């Protein structure tokens, strides 16, 4: 059985096929960690191999742990490592004694048959501390109807534990400082519980941590100044965190994904962020950040998605070259930020850009003429601003983007007959873009464009790039970015 291999591929599959696990944590092992175990396939361990057996105290501990989750059937298995059910992994030492290295609970999907938990009485058994070789512990939706705290004794699992996932279990109360004793932890995932209090400073003891997901809780206090050089993923979205984006975030030089969205973070984006030269996704949306746009953003050469939506206190103009050099940027979301001034024509020089959202601001002036021949954009939202003047787009651009081109609620926008767009942007087309003053409508069915009609079977795909839903019309952003980031993690293991 190669459960670590299963874990390595689990995220890549689930992130694409199920909205439930779009941000699911991959579980990794570290083959370089010192161990007395033989780290290899479990060949030859069968019912007829009398020389192999599970360490007796660990066997009894597993019985206790299984009873605590309502899986009393396990007590009928004479040797838990021989039983080989999905959810347990064992490895032998040099004396052919098998030790439990991984335990997993929870129904991830119909194809992943980890033991489920009795929702009425399940709890985390202290017998876990008797498993001295445990590398991975995984509980998913097991404890929801029996709310409890994260047991401090988990901090006694020692230096062997590399992965701790307690995801969607209804856990409440503060995160115990004792978890900081798990000094070899690589993955910590406490997503979607009811945890409160501050993030423990003891987490800085996780010197090899690669993924930290504390999202969808009720954590408060400031974002800690992490000093975690191997950290790839930092996800703290949907909490009650306050204070500034810490300048010390630049000490986590391996970061690929930073998501602090939907908190109460204030202040400006620190200039030191330009040291995160591997960063792919930066989501600071729905906070209380203020301007200006830091010139340091230009140093994020690997950045593919920048999401600042919903920071209504930004209230500045977009500088002409504020995003210069972001040649890999694919998604730029600056919606509902009370932005002022004109749209910079320099945005068209971001040749990798596919999605641009600027709606819900106070942008004025014309749409820059540089947008006329833009071929690479697949979605553009300029609606709900105060833009004026003729629409500059070529006809094939408008037809290609269809409903993903949004210009409505800009009373000053108009379309010239000379652009050959008056049959696309007409009074009955739903675009709310009128003919420019002095122009006359072409004869025929005024402003009706059949390819924009849902009646023709065209799906009205939209994009909501936020912590709740990161999906592009042509592919899922979250799957793309997370597959990329975790692929990087797996290659570096």
UniProtKB/TrEMBL annotation:
Residues 434-468 are annotated as: Disordered. GO terms for cellular component: plasma membrane. The keyword Signal applies. Residues 1-23 form the signal peptide. Keywords: Cell membrane, Glycoprotein, Leucine-rich repeat, Membrane, Repeat, Signal, Transmembrane, Transmembrane helix. Its main location: membrane. It is a single-pass type I membrane protein. It is found in: Cell membrane; Membrane. It comes from the Eukaryota. Pfam families: LRR_1 (PF00560), LRR_8 (PF13855). Gene3D superfamilies: Ribonuclease Inhibitor. SUPFAM superfamilies: L domain-like. One of its GO terms (biological process) is stomatal complex formation. SMART domains: LRR_TYP. One of its GO terms (molecular function) is receptor serine/threonine kinase binding. Belongs to the RLP family. PANTHER family: OS01G0149700 PROTEIN (PTHR48004), PROTEIN TOO MANY MOUTHS-RELATED (PTHR48004:SF42). This is Leucine-rich repeat-containing N-terminal plant-type domain-containing protein.
